[in-house]
């Protein structure tokens, strides 16, 4: 570009200056340039006035310079050189450019100009490759790894058929990636890189891609597996609709920020979203990306490039990278200001204290940030979001009085239970009004968490064996002005009239309900409010609620009252406000009615007194109090009645046969005392019976029929009869007793231990000694304390890890030395309480022995162990027993274990605390305990042993067979009944152990199996009736033609009985081999038929998970309305779950929901998957771990890196339950093992066993265990165990008809057929004829799995068709040995999915270079030389850095005038670059002027103009114009002065004017306009005399310069 310069007043045109010159002048000051020549027609004076003196001239003066045509080229060249120097100086001062220069020096930099330059072998750490042009790759080209830096410098790489890089642990930046065709990507790949543990920044991709497999592979548009950072990037290509726009998967410390994407299902296909910036979470169109350049430039890394839209429309108009760090976008504070302003309008008192605290903190942070004004845009956005989130999470203060229904809102009027039953969700903000009384029957079902307003308007909801009105009252829910009565039923846990919990408000309501699980309004108070309400009736689990649950809000019970016959749980101080129990008389008063009406507020329904006396909604009715308090005696007594109190006080004779007792004055069994008749003797053959009649309320008291013991449970009244029963069957009442049980009000309690008053004091216990707290109460109006029943109080320990106690019992003991406290509170009056601080001193252990020794006789079996023992045998009945520790009160007396020397004879269950005999024989039990001295911290291990011999009650003496030869066809069976005789069989006892071990002289011909595993003996008169014994009936089955001798050897060799020998011949059968596939299909249909019939009417609800899964997996269709009902019941249930929910509950629900196609990460807002992989209870048992793996795999859950559990840790933990000897897997430890648990574990490990070492080791041992545990009938003792093994084998791809596990005619499929019953269900054992739902479900699962196996379908638990875990997803790896530049290192990788490990060698490391050091400085002849040294191998590397210095030269003037013969040395040269020097001075016309080598210029006699050329060694030149004239050299201009000067009074300053030309012969003179203010000397020294202003005039010839001086 050219700029036209302004003309002078004489009209001479000027040569244009380049824009670069102008910039150099503006940015770097005036550049050194050649002076302009004069036009030939100018006068000398005019020429002088046109000289250019660059070191002092202003820009305006510079603009008046003329340049002669013959000097333009040199002048422009010289200026350009100066401009470049100035630009270099400016760049050197720029911080970013300086850092970039340093970075360039410190790394090995390589240039990529063509595709051939692409470093396909990798970019090592410390190396940098920079693109110099756009390049197009050819087929197969890909960078294997990038540990250093690939800097695109704004260029584009066009891919051929592979992603740009495989692994990136370093950095890719400033790069565009395009595609010449659509890429086909495999699982975990992306267009820019497959695995990223490093950083990709300021990059984009427009590559389109497809997944190699439609259902197996998850790909990413931008990258594959991301464990590093992607920031300030975008992806605008097309990718798989189920893939990730930015990444396929993620993990580790990944981060995605300010990155946009236009294709894919989500930012990450499968993985976490916890570290993705908000502006990166939403898919955009291409146009939206074009409009979002500001996002791409947000917090952009300093790489020398920024984002901008292309001006030429290239890249389809999408953002491209342009050079320059750019100006940071101005921070927009509007969102933060708006959030602050809206928050400041809120009123704190409207919200709960806890939720307002978060708002208050966020508001303070936001205000502080706004005041400081220094935050970045992302920080401002985050602060605004935090404040908005806190406001959105605010919880309104729950109302304490009924609310008004706003005018104009839609109100739903309720007239029937059906209308409420159809309310499932969406109740928040809704209003419901009950227009009449309604009744809920037993089939009523509602799973709604109610969050609206329900106004009963004084009407009644009656429950007839029904669930509560709702599942729970939610945070926003309000139930008001409603009476509840009736019976709770159809429930399996504590339930109230409003369901499980109250989080909202229950206002101005009454409840009068009964039922085994009934508890007032709800099971739990969970932060809610119950106000102005009452409870009476027979609610056994709690008056208002059964338990208090800690929540964000403490909850409130205000102005509430309940009959003292009902219990209330302990609650924290402050929860109960003006709320207490009252006796029935107090509840039936108009005073209570007035209290309730005073508390009902403006919108509460009015209370009145009912005809029964209790408050109700309505006007006062006629109520006549029971003036005769005591039950009336029907007749006079024939005998006086006496009463002996439980505490041993003297027997008293009752006056008027009336007895007053209290529920507080009873013993541990609730016995108040014993009634008897004075002087009564029963006639011969007669006896006396005691009974309660006319009891109110029901269950308040009871009588022991024969002893006369009176049990008192709660307040009430009854009439007791003493009836004489005669020998002829006739009877007559001989006495009556009128009894009233009343709980008196207590005003204080006293606590005693061992008779010592320790109320609100302290007590010391020696070790683990068990103590009891005796409670005494002081009744209102009485002076003395009296003993009270322990059951009337709650005993809450402050630290359950130190003290062991049950809240309902007064006894306690210490688990270890330490200090804690117990608070005792009255159930009826929770505000009455006392506390005792307890300390346990250390008591060391002296000895320990098992609690059983000597000979133990065993006979009956434990039916529950049938099919559950690791060796397949049925264990004998367990013998309770523990360890005996001396002293008994040792501090750690309870922390012991017992082990057996031979588990095959007998073992000990440390969980159940029982000895378990397995067979006769001797065994040594060892008890072990650890004891830690708290003072020294040292731990001792103490052991003790006992010898035990198990002997049979009726040992076997002989066994006989009714036949010696049997012939059977192949594939057919024949039963054989053996006869067993024992030592005392003649007394009616069964033989204790009739087990037989069968051997054959030839294999593969026949098998002998027991028909039944065991049975219950039900024989009247038999001494061992009602015991479980193992079966004695056997079945012979031919499996191949031939003849064998079968030998049956009794297992019991106590009396050395003879074995049984039978000759067995198997002939060819007429039938074909079993079609096991057909058999399995038929049995599947039977199981399905049984289960569908079972649920035809009742449908499915929470708890039916296994049925739902099994039916859906087998291909059955369940009616959608039934599935919807099931899902609703699950949602209602899981909402009440907490982090400590039993894992197997979560896991089975997850499996059922996955089979339904539901997302288990969002079950009505609950993430079941997260509950599984973050569970603290997953290691409670092997079952929890097994189904965690199955459930997570079935739903194909990607476990986040910060989860508590991953698949690897689950597999490892499962291995801890495997018996190292047998390979069996136990339920709670590795000491036992059972077939079904082992099989379940194999199902979980099936997809991992071929590719995961830990899974393979567990599986191999477990398979061996199952092969050994199989019974003779090819089963495992029970339907469930056999089914689980079949399911395990088919899940692992093992044919259950193989040699190890069966034959075509005898196998687990045929075995399961033996459990089928007439109703098509399966029974638990073959000896039981009743079908079991669980047995049927497991049989269906196994047979269905076998069907999948033979049809080559996906395995049973594989709901996502994922197949085996055959491809590992390796993490970023951990360096186990670092590489150096001399030796290779090693790196260990772990599969993020299954935990498998691998080790690889790493490439030689880059040299550890020192920083570059300058060894030779740059000159005009050579660039700077730098050297660095490797600290490991001492290798040196030297190179040139930068460029040679540009030659520069500056003259102090570019034109002078001289008289002939005159000389001057005033012309000076400066500004030379390093290494340069003046080589010569040369005159263009020596006839006019000469110059010597020192620069002394001498005018010759001839006048005229000539030029002096100064030439440097670098060949740089500068020209000086010389005019030789005869006349006086006059001054053309005065420079070097300022127009204004300020000095202080009495101070001086010296003026230093410069005459132009510098050879002027005219002298300088000085004058002051006001010498009173300032004077000036002939040398130019100005002195300030007094305050004021003076003008100093500097004159030289005709030229003057005025300077205004101000004196202060």
What oligomerization state is this entry in?
single chain
Return Rg in Å: 50 Å
For the largest beta-sheet, the strand count, sense and barrel status come to: 11 strands, parallel
Morphology call: extended
User: Low-confidence parts, pLDDT < 50 over ≥5 residues?
Assistant: 1-108
> What is the structural class?
alpha/beta
Distance between the termini: 50 Å
Mean pLDDT: 87
Helicity range of the residues?
10-25%
Per DSSP, what share of the residues sits in E-state strands of 2 or more residues? 25-35%
What's the tally of helices? 25
Total DSSP E strands = 107
Could you describe the 3D structure shown?
With 1608 residues, this protein is an alpha/beta fold. The protein is 17% helix and 31% strand. The protein is built from 25 helices and 107 strands. Strands 1, 2, 3, 5, 6, 8, 11, 14, 15, 17 and 18 form an eleven-stranded parallel beta sheet that branches. It has an eight-stranded parallel beta sheet with strand order 22-23-26-29-32-35-38-40. Strands 24-27-30-33-36-39-41 form a seven-stranded parallel beta sheet. The longest helix is centred in the first third of the chain and has 21 residues, at 72-92. The radius of gyration is 50 Å and the shape is extended. The chain starts with 18 loop residues before the first helix and ends with a strand. The relative contact order is 0.04. The model is unreliable at 1-108 (pLDDT under 50).
